[in-house]
Design goal:
mainly alpha, two-stranded parallel sheet, about 0% strand, elongated, mechanosensitive monoatomic ion channel activity
């Protein structure tokens, strides 16, 4: 028991000792904290500004946690400085040479500090107002960021195009960007025609069956709803708002008194003007973004070190980005290889001339074939289309579609002879297909002009027949003095003219539909079915179908781009006679985007030579501008020169279509306004104005070229600036050294000349003294010398063998007949001792 008690006492003592030690440690810790605080306060007064701000931040954190409401003016000033310091650190954190972990930690701490203490800089209401402003500013910044993300997400098909670009390169993606741009243009054209032409006529115009132009003829009623007739846009489709002939020539329709003929004309002109404006504006913006110059300086270094986006958090996006970087390296490598390639120039020229000759033969053959087919179709139309087959009725459209499908393939084979850079080869291919489509289209238009002339002749005959028919109907049904009401004839039974405008609109609609169907069928058979056969028959075939023939198909950029451009040209050309064409084109482009995106990703493979597309798609835009100009010429010609049909369309009864403008000016505007318009439209004013515009365009183009050249020169100077400055500095140093050496040499020569001039009098005196001594000696020894002259040869004194002294300025040499005197020895002072 005692032992246990002793043990308990020992344990109690140890516990007491432990408690006392803990209390001592706490006291020591408190003392240490106080000392540290004192040291911190001293350090604040003597340390640098950055250290003082950090210590003030620590003190502010401690005080803020304890008493956030009570802050003295000095503390508020310190808090403001600390907040400003943290904000500055946040803005300059990106340029710090710190590890990423340290940057993230510092950024997080700085944000937390600013968010916690930024609102404490005011008092009472001002503090709440400041906190409210800070909160609203943050919400506004978040709204702006979300709105930018929303705008990016609202761009149609952006992610699809980015994915295609990452796998197939920028050349294939440029086609889909161009398709999206065309879709936007056609949406505007569709809105104009649908909202200002089709809807007003459908809602406020006369209904179907109220007049002959809005009624199917009695002979066609039986087959008006057949699928074959509707597929050819005949029957009820022909007598609807889809075509020109359905619209009434009544000046104002509906309770709104809507000017239908004026609206139809202005919408037709406005769509063309808007198209011109948008195309030219896009070309100018692309030219400004391009800027000229060479952007390939340190190309591989930039791609290696700056291509990756570190904000990517989606695995699929990361895969697309990786594929995009890989494709961009392929493009850059091909550009470098093409810039260093050296070929046999004579063989290359011969092959290029041969290729152009073959292309010209193909173009001539296709033009003759279309002209032959159109002449045949006119013959079939005169004989009656009912007695001919489906191919003979649709021969023109099918031949044009097949030529547009197979001729580009032939041009692609021919272009392999030329050995151009892929981008230049694409431009040549586009130009050739452009010439093919343009020739085919104008051949088709010329044939249509012939058919229009036939329709107008038929119309003149019908006018005479209708006059006879009306007279016979009147005379056969009414007596001489009859007062009965006139007999009403159903509109379906009234004879009507051929309406050449509706015929032109039908031809363009059929051409658009047949071209669209040909494109989709070629896509499904030529790409999808081919890919399926190669994929599944490769396991049981004799050779490798994927690597050899037929392999997977490549995406034809040139053919698809030209298809888009000429499809749009036909829309511009035929929209005046078929207001439904913009709606059909919008539907076609919408389906084409999804179908071709799917076909590219599933059925096509990247090209073997992936090349970079042009920075600005101005080549596409230039071709689009040309086709816009060429497609509006036939429409303008028909509007200005050919009289409209007498019994169909909004301009029936007028000598020319543009007479609706003069009619509106006379009826709805004052007389003075009509006079001003007639004076402004006078050719004497219009031609000088056009000439002035041409001169202004020429001047602006010349100025732009000079600015571009100056920009290129500045870029060259910037690129060669450091090396040129270094070379100039080295040249200056060399010139300074040369000048210094020349100055030293001149100083040495001058000093030697001065030394020689100072020694000359002394040397002359020595010479005179030596000559006098020699004369004295000679007189004394003259007798002895003459006595012994015959006995022995005289001995030459040793001094006589020395060379004569140099003759200086004012220093005479030895006289003739006298012995040479020894020259005094002069020691040269070394160069190092002269100074």
């Amino acid at each position: 028991m005692e032992v246990v008690g002793e043990e308990d006492g020992d344990t109690e003592g140890k516990r007491k000792n432990g408690h006392s030690k803990k209390e001592e440690k706490k006291e020591d810790n408190e003392r240490g904290e106080k000392v540290q605080k004192k040291k911190k306060n001293k350090r604040i007064e003597t340390s640098s500004e950055q250290e003082s701000s950090e210590e003030v931040e620590d003190e502010v954190e401690e005080e803020g946690e304890e008493k956030p409401e009570v802050l003295s003016p000095e503390e508020l000033e310190k808090l403001k400085e600390a907040v400003d310091e943290r904000k500055k650190r946040i803005s300059t954190l990106r340029g710090k040479p710190w590890p990423m972990r340290k940057k993230l930690l510092t950024l997080r701490e700085s944000h937390e500090f600013v968010e916690k203490y930024e609102g404490a800089l005011g008092k009472g209401k001002s503090r709440k107002l400041y906190a409210y402003k800070v909160m609203m500013l943050k919400k506004w910044m978040k709204f702006q960021r979300d709105f930018e993300n929303f705008k990016t997400a609202c761009v149609p098909w952006e992610m699809k195009i980015k994915e295609i670009e990452s796998h197939f390169g920028s050349s294939v993606a440029s086609y889909f960007i161009f398709l999206r741009w065309m879709y936007g243009i056609n949406m505007i054209l569709f809105g104009l025609t649908f909202g200002l032409v089709m809807v007003p006529e459908a809602l406020m115009g006369r209904p179907y069956g109220s007049m002959p132009r809005k009624t199917v003829p009695r002979a066609e009623e039986a087959n008006a709803m057949d699928f074959a007739v509707l597929w050819d846009f005949g029957g009820y489709a022909q007598y609807s708002v889809l075509f020109y002939g359905y619209y009434n020539s009544q000046r104002a329709i509906g309770w709104l008194k809507f000017r239908m003929p004026l609206s139809y004309f202005l919408v037709g002109v406005g769509t063309v003007a808007y198209s011109y404006m948008v195309v030219i504006r896009t070309m100018a913006r692309n030219a400004n973004e391009d800027g000229g110059g060479d952007d390939n300086s340190f190309n591989f270094s930039w791609k290696m070190f700056t291509s990756w986006d570190y904000l990517i958090g989606n695995p699929e996006t990361a895969d697309n980005k990786f594929a995009s970087i890989t494709t961009s390296f392929k493009e850059a490598i091909l550009e470098e290889q093409e810039s260093r390639k050296d070929d046999n120039i004579h063989l290359t020229r011969f092959l290029r001339v041969l290729a152009n000759f073959l292309v010209l033969c193909c173009l001539a053959g296709s033009g003759y074939l279309i002209y032959f087919v159109v002449r045949r179709s006119q013959k079939f139309a005169l004989e009656g289309l009912e007695s001919h087959s489906w191919w003979e009725r649709n021969e023109v459209n099918m031949v044009m579609s097949l030529l547009g499908m197979f001729c580009p393939m032939l041009f692609d084979v021919i272009s392999a002879l030329e050995n151009y850079h892929p981008r230049i080869a694409l431009q040549w291919q586009l130009g050739r297909i452009f010439a093919l489509f343009l020739g085919n289209l104008y051949t088709f238009i010329i044939a249509l002009m012939d058919e229009i002339n036939l329709k107008r002749e038929e119309e003149e005959v019908l006018k005479l027949n209708m006059t006879i028919w009306e007279a016979s109907l009147y005379n056969g049904t009414l007596g001489a003095n009859s007062t009965a009401p006139p007999i009403t004839v159903h509109p379906a039974d009234i004879p009507r003219g051929p309406c050449w405008e509706t015929m032109v609109g039908q031809e363009f609609v059929r051409l658009i539909v047949s071209d669209t169907m040909t494109t989709y069928i070629t896509l499904l058979i030529g790409d999808f079915l081919r890919a399926v056969l190669v994929r599944f028959l490769n396991y049981c075939w004799c050779w490798d179908l994927e690597a050899g023939f037929p392999s997977y198909s490549e995406f034809d950029v040139s053919g698809n781009v030209l298809g888009l451009i000429f499809n749009q040209g036909m829309i511009w050309m035929g929209a005046f006679y078929a207001p439904c064409l913009p709606a059909l084109n919008v539907l076609r482009l919408h389906v084409s985007m999804y179908l071709q995106c799917w076909a590219v990703m599933c059925c096509n493979v990247p090209q073997e030579r992936v090349f970079k597309a042009s920075g600005s798609n101005n080549f596409y835009m230039a071709m689009l501008l040309v086709i816009l100009f060429l497609s509006t010429l036939p429409a303008i010609y028909t509007i200005v020169t050919i009289p409209p049909s007498f019994d169909c369309g909004p301009f029936s009864g007028k000598s020319r279509m543009f007479d609706v403008i003069q009619e509106t000016l006379e009826s709805d505007f004052p007389a003075w306004f009509g006079k001003m318009f007639s004076y402004a439209s006078n050719p004497g004013l219009v031609l000088p104005f056009l000439l002035l515009m041409v001169l202004a365009i020429y001047y602006l183009q010349s100025t732009s070229k000079s600015y571009k050249q100056a920009n290129l020169e500045l870029k060259k100077k910037l690129q060669t600036g450091p090396t040129a400055d270094l070379h100039a500095a080295e040249q200056n140093e060399e010139n300074k050294k040369k000048k210094k050496m020349a100055a030293l040499k001149a100083a040495m020569d001058l000093e030697e000349a001065q030394n020689a001039r100072s020694e000359a009098p002394r040397q002359q005196r020595n010479n005179n003294a030596s000559q006098q001594s020699y004369r004295d000696r000679g007189e004394k020894k003259g007798g002895e010398h003459r006595a012994h002259q015959g006995k022995s040869n005289h001995q030459i004194p040793p001094s006589a063998t020395r060379p004569p002294a140099p003759r200086g300025h004012g220093l005479p040499g030895p006289l003739p007949g006298n012995q040479r005197q020894p020259a005094p020895s002069v020691q040269r002072v070394p160069n190092s001792q002269r100074h």
